[in-house]
Amino acid sequence: MTRILHILDHSLPMHSGYTFRTRAILKAQQALGFEVRGVTGLRHTAGGPCVEEADGLRFHRTEGSVSGPPGWREWREIGRFAQGIESVVRDWRPDILHAHSPALCGQAALRVARRHGLPLVYEIRAFWEDAAVGNGTGSEGSLRYRLTRALESRVVQRADAVVTICEGLRRDLVDRGTPESKITVMPNGVDLSLFGSPPDRDAALARDLGFETGGKSCPVIGFIGSFYDYEGLDVLIEAMPALVARHADARLLLVGGGPREAALRAQAENSPAADAIRFVGRVPHHEVERYYALCDVMAYPRKRSRLTDLVTPLKPLEAMAQGKLVAASDVGGHRELIADGKTGTLFAPDDPAACAAALAGLLADRVHWNSYRTAGRNHVETRHDWRTNAGRYQDVYQMLSHISLPRGIVAAA
After folding, report:
1. Structure confidence by residue, pLDDT tens digits, 117-131
2. Is the torsion defined by CA of 335, 308, 150, 23 positive or negative?
3. Which domains can be identified in the chain, with CATH numbers?
4. Out of 241, 276, 348, 349, which could bridge 329 as a Cys pair, Cβ 3.0 to 4.6 Å?
5. Are 191 and 318 in contact (CB under 8 A)?
6. Which helix (H) or strand (E) holds 409?
């Protein structure tokens, strides 16, 4: 049985978009007949044993810590992570190393792959220098930005195969000089086994949040996720007075937290539509579906930036899988996922008036809600189901070398 060792920034039992995509990949590969494990670096901050089982998956932890000035500290981190990977390679003897961004993971894996003559797949989920700009921890063009980009380019150049999650990232790598034949697009996907019948609307919770007027349910716009600036939640809050002017009973539900939470709460308190906006903070993962069930429309008003134009988010796909209407800003990452007027509604980014008009139009168009929901669910099932998309990995692995596929698997022509 072919063994794949995944090299990861962090993993379950931590919860993030990164760990959920990792879980989906590893579970789908197990179903295809591969034997899989993961090894995490020093940025996996959850306590636990050095070898940990989570959701039926085995993860090895790199132990220790590093210090020093920026740059030197990261180089030490790569070295320590390489030692952790090396330990798993010696004990478990994988056939392929599959590293996932950031480039620190890729560089650590590259050292071990070359030392042991193993093929290396490097998978890019986002350019982390752009993600740092987006979440406010970096600035475009800074020394750190340029060094991170240079390290990523080095790993891409030396890896045996490269995987990206979307066309935007693929095009950027090609523009940098990466051969197109070296890159495979593995779209963001949803494990549909986790999205069966959505739970019923919790009437008591809806009443507690003020989502009923005159005994009738209010239409609810929802966002569930992290409150980063690039998500554009300030645009959504600014759009609410115009939306309420057209739909007096409309409500906005914001679930989650993050760096922008305090500023967003202050903005909402000072809004003319303050009474229509509800913050509930972070909720346990098992509670998230209760809040999804309250929402009619999931809104994703991302601002235009390199990050949002290049990278496809996971949340709109999860919303479609749950039969929710989707309204999103017209940035590159959303255009890869949403067909305007068919599977959702797109509106001009960074424009509260356009956001309000799109949401108001969607709320007024109830006659087409079922067609939107059906088209969205079908889109996820046909193009973003992990059970199908994960089969592309076997083609990537087969191309690398003499590796034999697990019994029962046939590489695509």
Report:
1. 999 999 999 998 988
2. negative
3. 3-189+386-400 (3.40.50.2000), 193-383 (3.40.50.2000)
4. 349
5. no
6. none
